[in-house]
Amino acid sequence: MEPQLSWLDDPQVFRVGTLPAHSDHFFYINEQEMKAETSSLTQSLDGEWDFKFAPNPQARPQHFFQPEDDRRNFTTITVPGHIELHNDAQIQYINTLYPWEGKEYRRAAYTLGQNVEAGMFSQAPDNSMGAYVTHFDLPQQWAHQRIAVQFDGVQTAMYVWLNGHFIGYAEDSFSRSEFDLTPYVKSRDNLLAVAVFKLSTASFLEDQDMFRFSGIFRSVQLVSRPKIHLEDLTLKPTLSDDFETGLLTVKAALSGERQVGQHIELRLLDATGATIATQQQAVKTTDATVTFDRLTLPQVHRWDHHDPYLYQLVLTIIDVTGHVVEAVPASVGFRRIEIKDNVILLNGQRLILNGVNRHEWSADHGRVISMADMQADLKTFAQAHINAVRTCHYPDQIPWYYLCDQAGIYMMAENNLETHGTWQKLGAVEPSVNVPGSLPQWRAAVLDRAVNNYETFKNHPAILFWSLGNESYAGEDIAAMNAYYKSVDPSRLTHYEGVIRNPAYEEQISDVESRMYAAPTEIRQYLMESPTKPFLDCEYMHDMGNSLGGLGDYMALFDEFPSYAGGFIWDFIDQALWVNDEVTGQPVLRYGGDFDDRHSDYEFSGDGVMFADRTPKPALQEVAYYYGKYDR
Amino acid sequence: MANTTDNLRVIYGDGVLGVHGPHVYYGFSYDRGGLESLAIDGKEWLYRVARPAFWRATTDNDRGNHFSERSAMWLGADLFSPCVAINVQVDGVDLGLPLAPENNRFSNHEMASSVIVTFTYQTTTVPSTTVAIAYTVRADGTLAIHEHFGGQSELPELPVFGLRLTMPTVASSFDYTGLSGETYPDRMAGGTTGTYHVDGLPVTPYLVPQEMGMHMDTKQLTVTRRQTLNNADPDAAPFSLAIVGTPTFAFSCLPYTPFELENATHIEELPIPRRTVLSLFGAVRGVGGIDSWGADVAAPYHIDATMDHECDFVIRPE
């Protein structure tokens, strides 16, 4: 297939040639590798890439992906990183309006009955692009294997070539995109080329309150699939009705060459490493899926915030000669989330959410954050008794989910979706050009985001809620996302706040009544008037500047209403960037509007309980006090 | 009961009523309209006269709520309200304002056990009201300060109410007995009671400089400096000023006035610290937190300017 620039304009083209999303499990060639946590089946491509910036699509280098092309005018850029922080494109912070406000006139395709507007993004003067190139060799032992490349986050639309051959196209900036390289990969001197465009129709779906960046901003790695490979793992741990017995179903989907005589061994270990269950299932040539008999664990050790106990599951694929050809570990936490009598229960106990919304943020690197940043955040969570996090408003880096499993942090795992500027203008609700709304042409794109989120993260016990997105109004498309989650995962709750803007959908969307910034009196009123759903604040206590007064009025609701489940403070960390002061040369923190970026929402980027440099704001002691008081 | 010790030497000057006490000198300026000198063991603590405080720098929530727009006249009142009346009482005798020739009858050896000087300020608000600051110098040299705000219908809510003392140089540290961290009436549950030492005059690095550094429910505060502006004072030993509550007060101790904070859009725009701005408060508005685009501070944390307010502090020369 030939790549088309016009895909940028068409909401119905959001992935071309990508591999289906699958669980984020690690895989190794044997158990020794697994224990050492170093897989010979992955190879990082992070580091310095060759790079050329173009201010618009027409100025892009046309043939840079061809091995023989002249790229002597390329510079280098660090992957992962933002093009804006490489000082090619202007840094901009904006909240609800679209970043092109006042500069370009745009209405999302199909919203006013019109078709795709040719050139809206593909011929736009404000659609900057980056041409990325890297070279790689394959490890010798990867010869004749299936080779893929995984991009963990690329904003906003990307085209990929290998050795001059077009491989695929992807949107959904905050989800992993994986492409099969096998047909064109060589043992040595491969040329991987990526064209990244800042804007596409996906931009309408990614109107989050944040700095608007572009580029390859999360890690990139090559993966090699063994001849037979555990492609996707589905774990469904839960508890019996008396919460004493753990129940676990395990399903493995295989890719590659299935043969008679292959089998998968399952071992379940407790946290001390003692084996408590084993099982073996034969691989069938007729069915790629291997389903294990349900495991039953009497007197199971439950998982929760105070005791995030994880069992370890090990699956090994054994070939016909009896040798292990792949080993896959997974953590299993037994817990049960449900709603009874309008009360959210975890393991039969009322759930109390002492949470924060958390953007991924670093004052040095924007949304490129390190493992050390994540660990520092969890340390702050522990100190301030924060027990829950909403991944606002996109999926986070994969390691964060593992860390939350281990730390016992309840997750509201949110899709990459916000279309704020399509339905709310200057504070007024005006959904005439809302997407996705009920438009069939936008449904597949948002459903794809739901699939990516579910399939990637489904095995993380920390996730209690699937969140359909943020501030996108409500219609058939978001109802379809809700229905999707219910069909694949009835074991978790769905969450979406925006349905309160269109109550016609309240029975189809969201298991919980979720609001943002409702005053305690309004919440009390809802809870006193025969509520039909338990209540939570997906955002509350807007901690902008010197704020967070009155938290006690919210916490008092816990004592009054069992249906009150608490909420997530907006938000965890200020978004501001270190720059050298143009006058003194000293490092200073700058916010929206400080880069001559117009339109901007200025200091509205700073609403954290932490300053942008990860030092605590004075208000954090108030959070620690109340969250500690209700730390049950 | 008659006082047995007339420790205070009173100087009935033509522009200043001077009071010498043990280790301490207070100068009440008639022309500047306020306490202009507070010197302990010869070290001056005031840069300009102490004045009533009505304004705090706008917080992000104030801006979103339009509070500063509604209450803007308090900013002008804080900066510009003139002193309109001065009254002197010595040992219970009301002397009015003892200007010449009235003060010609005094000598250089006038002693007393109690001096009360009251400055009355007329606010530059519409409508106007009056604020009286009564300074009582006691026989032991302590200074009791009583401030009264006269409620007036139609006045907008107050951001704060108290007294602002601007010191000539930057404090090296302060120590207080009260709550940990930065606290406000609607955000003080997390404060832990204790005695705290704070080095320097830290500025809380809010992205946009705004109201900061409040300490609610304080029993005692000691501010320590090492430097004066007196060219004949080479002594670099630390010296302190102690304030006690009756029973408690709120304060902030910053290198900036609310107006300097108000003016800056970034921390780096704030001037080089030169003074110590000690604000003592009897009433503080909450900071709020429901949202930053309109939600008001919860009702109990407003300061109603249609009602009278009082505050009291005692300065105790060590």
UniProtKB/TrEMBL annotation, chain A:
Residues 337-629 form the Glycoside hydrolase family 2 catalytic domain. Pfam families: Glyco_hydro_2, Glyco_hydro_2_C, Glyco_hydro_2_N. Residues 228-335 form the Glycoside hydrolase family 2 immunoglobulin-like beta-sandwich domain. InterPro entries: Bact_Beta-galactosidase, Beta-gal/glucu_dom_sf, Galactose-bd-like_sf, GH, Glyco_hydro_2, Glyco_hydro_2_AS, Glyco_hydro_2_cat, Glyco_hydro_2_CS. Coiled coil: none annotated. It catalyses: Hydrolysis of terminal non-reducing beta-D-galactose residues in beta-D-galactosides. It comes from the Bacteria. Belongs to the glycosyl hydrolase 2 family. This is beta-galactosidase. It comes from Furfurilactobacillus curtus. The lineage of its organism: Bacteria, Bacillati, Bacillota, Bacilli, Lactobacillales.
TrEMBL record, chain B:
Residues 18-316 form the Beta galactosidase small chain/ domain. It holds the Pfam family Bgal_small_N. This is beta-galactosidase. The gene is lacM. Its EC number is 3.2.1.23. InterPro entries: B-gal_small/dom_5, Bact_Beta-galactosidase, Gal_mutarotase_sf_dom, GH-type_carb-bd. It catalyses: Hydrolysis of terminal non-reducing beta-D-galactose residues in beta-D-galactosides. The keyword Electron transport does not apply. Keywords: Glycosidase, Hydrolase. It comes from Furfurilactobacillus curtus.
